[in-house]
Amino acid sequence: MTTSDEKGTTGARTDMRTPSVVSEEAWEAARQQLLVKEKAHTRARDALAAERRRMPWMAVKADYMFEGPDGKTSFIDLFDGRRQLIVYRAFYEPGVFGWPEHACRGCSLVADQVAHLAHLNARDTTLVFVSRAPQQDIARLKERMGWDIPWFTLTDRFDADFGVDEWHGTNVFFRDGDQVLRTYFLNNRGDEQMGNTWNYLDITPLGRQELWEDSPEGYPQTQTYKWWNWHDSYVDDAPPDKKWVEVSDAGEAAFRAENAKNKG
After folding, report:
1. CA-to-CA distance for 147 and 130, rounded, in angstroms?
2. What are the residue ranges of helices labelled H in 53-130?
3. What is the pLDDT of residues 113-153, one digit of tens each?
4. Taking the model in full, what pTM does it have?
5. What is the DSSP string of 165-184?
6. Which of 148, 172, 202 is the endpoint of a domain?
7. Where are the stretches annotated Disordered (predicted)?
8. List of residues 6+ apart from 175 with CB closer than 8 A
9. Do the beta carbons of residue 90 and residue 105 sit within 8 Å?
10. 165 and 233: one domain?
């Protein structure tokens, strides 16, 4: 099917060659054919995350300092008492397009996509943004844009030492007592997928921490679905809600039954 004289997203007129229109049966057959590849992609993504959890770690030896809403903040403090820390370097500072009203457009799009942080926090994980802008500017920007991400000011060589002085990037760290270790880093195209709770957890050393995951021996893992909660209802060390366990068990059983039926 070909449509013509349509307006594209850029405002230019273009001819758009679309796929053919078929019957419901043919459409479902095509979907099932593609689903085979999509399932393979999902399994490959899970395997890649498992390999990522086995990457070696690098000790962080410098004592980096940041400026936060309450003043000077150490690197350890950024963890906020949790074991895992994800640090996104956002460009908001003099010289960046949009300053001082806005941060970099790409970094702002990343911030707009960040899911509610309570779900990451429930998996012992903290997410923060860091920039060169002073705290008063960061506070004004967050209020204007409706962001509640913890956002700190860089004061030393952190950005240069971790590959984010000239381009955005996401670094992942693990805290073992007072020792901080760098576990992962991604930038460029890898960063565009971030914001989703699952994608963030998949780049952490502990992963989603669910039983189905292929993780090294001794890593914390809980039953799939059972730790999920409303973002205003997480309680530290609380057991899974009994009613939610029943509901999720029933849903998982139905899901597996449907899969078995389709395979048969």
Report:
1. 14
2. 75-78, 105-113, 117-121
3. 999 999 999 999 999 999 999 999 999 999 999 999 999 99
4. 0.92
5. SSS-EEEEEEEETTEEEEEE
6. 202
7. 1-22
8. 76, 79, 82, 83, 84, 85, 181
9. no
10. no
